[in-house]
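Progress note, sequence design subtask.
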């Protein structure tokens, strides 16, 4: 019977470790930065056991050890008390069971990643705010909010695209810009990729930070599509969105056809590839000025 009981412990250990680490995280959230000894007292376990869990949380990016300098130890106004605590705690806080003289207690706190694991109501707050805007200002007011919300993202991505275009010169096709844009969007949390296909290019976003809100307010998707269109320098077509239940936000970037010889006129605004504006004006070539907002084929909203 003893052998069976001993063998059963390792099987449940990972789950138990996960629960204990969740409790450690919750205590750090509730009480702020703490040492292993303080956490152990609240959990009713040994400091050594808490340190093992803290090591795991640090490795996972959920917790970080605070750096303590002499200037911050007395910032509370009780320098003598801090020194007394520093003399009492080091022997228990030294890693690996070693006794450390004069070393202040190691304290730990949650990282942004650790905090994000707890429930939040950001989507509810955004939905409440946009519903209020829609009720009092109508769809155009919601669109203005969406465009303003994406302005910062557009500026940051535009910088990366402009640098790439400058380096490539006239050879920066929309698909090439999409490759750079995908990298910039990935740093913003969109997990984006871009690839060349027979009909042009394709930009895929595997994550949408505002999917739940955009499901009710498609103006967010429309504003984002407009940003993509401006940055790649041609019209684009949204084929799928996470907000509408698709697995990936997919944007098609059609191949631009070269202008026909003898036609020097340029349309007032870019038009879809393969079509010309009234009067026979050709499609704008790749690399043309993007001061005018390119046209966009908006995504279809399910009935």
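Output:
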């Amino acid at each position: 019977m003893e052998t069976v009981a001993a063998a059963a412990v390792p099987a449940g250990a990972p789950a138990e470790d996960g629960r204990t680490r969740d409790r450690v995280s919750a205590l750090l959230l509730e009480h702020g930065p703490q040492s292993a000894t303080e956490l152990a007292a609240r959990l009713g376990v040994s400091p050594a056991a808490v340190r093992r869990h803290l090591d795991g949380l640090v490795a996972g990016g959920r917790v970080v050890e605070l750096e303590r300098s002499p200037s911050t130890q007395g910032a509370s106004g009780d320098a003598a008390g801090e020194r007394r605590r520093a003399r009492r705690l080091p022997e228990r806080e030294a890693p690996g069971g070693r006794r450390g003289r004069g070393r202040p207690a190691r304290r730990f706190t949650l990282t942004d990643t650790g905090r994000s694991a707890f429930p939040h109501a950001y989507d509810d707050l955004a939905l409440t705010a946009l519903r209020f805007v829609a009720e009092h200002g109508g769809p155009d007011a919601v669109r203005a909010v969406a465009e303003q919300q994406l302005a910062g993202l557009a500026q940051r991505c535009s910088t990366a695209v402009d640098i790439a275009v400058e380096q490539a010169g006239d050879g920066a096709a929309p698909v090439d810009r999409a490759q750079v844009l995908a990298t910039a969007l990935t740093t913003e949390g969109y997990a984006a990729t871009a690839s060349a296909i027979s009909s042009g290019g394709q930009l895929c976003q595997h994550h949408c930070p505002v999917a739940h809100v955009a499901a009710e307010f498609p103006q967010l998707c429309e504003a984002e599509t407009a940003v993509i269109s401006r940055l790649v320098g041609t019209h684009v077509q949204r084929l799928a969105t996470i907000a509408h239940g698709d697995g990936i936000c997919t944007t098609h970037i059609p191949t631009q056809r070269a202008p026909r010889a003898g036609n020097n006129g340029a349309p007032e605004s870019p038009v879809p590839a393969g079509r010309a504006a009234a009067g026979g004006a050709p499609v704008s070539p790749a690399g043309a000025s993007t001061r005018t907002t390119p046209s966009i084929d908006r995504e279809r909203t399910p009935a």
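The chain has two domains: 2-116, 122-297. Work on this subtask will continue into the next period as scheduled.
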